Amino acid sequence: MKKVISIFFITILSVCFLFEGCGKMSDRDYVSKIIKLSLPQGATIVAKNTHSGFLGDGTYFAKITFSAVEIKPFLEKIKANKWQPLPLKKDIDALLYGGTINGIEYADFLAKEVGMPKVKNGYWTFVDRNTEKSTELLERYSYNFDLAIFDTDTNTLYVYQLDT
Length: 164
What we know:
Layout: H1 2-18, H2 27-35, E1 44-49, E2 58-65, H3 68-80, E3 84-85, H4 90-97, E4 99-101, E5 104-106, H5 109-114, E6 122-128, E7 144-151, E8 156-163
Antiparallel strand pairs: 1-2, 2-8, 3-6, 4-5, 6-7, 7-8
């Protein structure tokens, strides 16, 4: 009986390792899901995902660059989907880049941690996935959000997802 159980568990583990990569979304599909827009096929994506563990805490950060031909149609999609023109809201800006709000100093480690520059010209969208929506963003114990910033000076899209 022990031998049968051992063989069963070894078989299950082998199947899990064999198919570990199956079902994972490509970065193109994952970014498209986050921003709710399809990316042009020629867009170049450099991404890093640290989500892991039982609760899936971590970050996803992607830097997407576009060819000159792809910019105008993508920018039209952004505007049609009601992305906001920069600057960011003060609380989001302080959370990412640091700053002082109501006499409270906020560190700037989030943007630095993933290498996201402060963008001056462009558009942004923010989806708060936190269940504590009644609490102000900067007063929370944990963060779950998706942020996308399109830099119109460099034709670069930054996508940042945080789950704590």
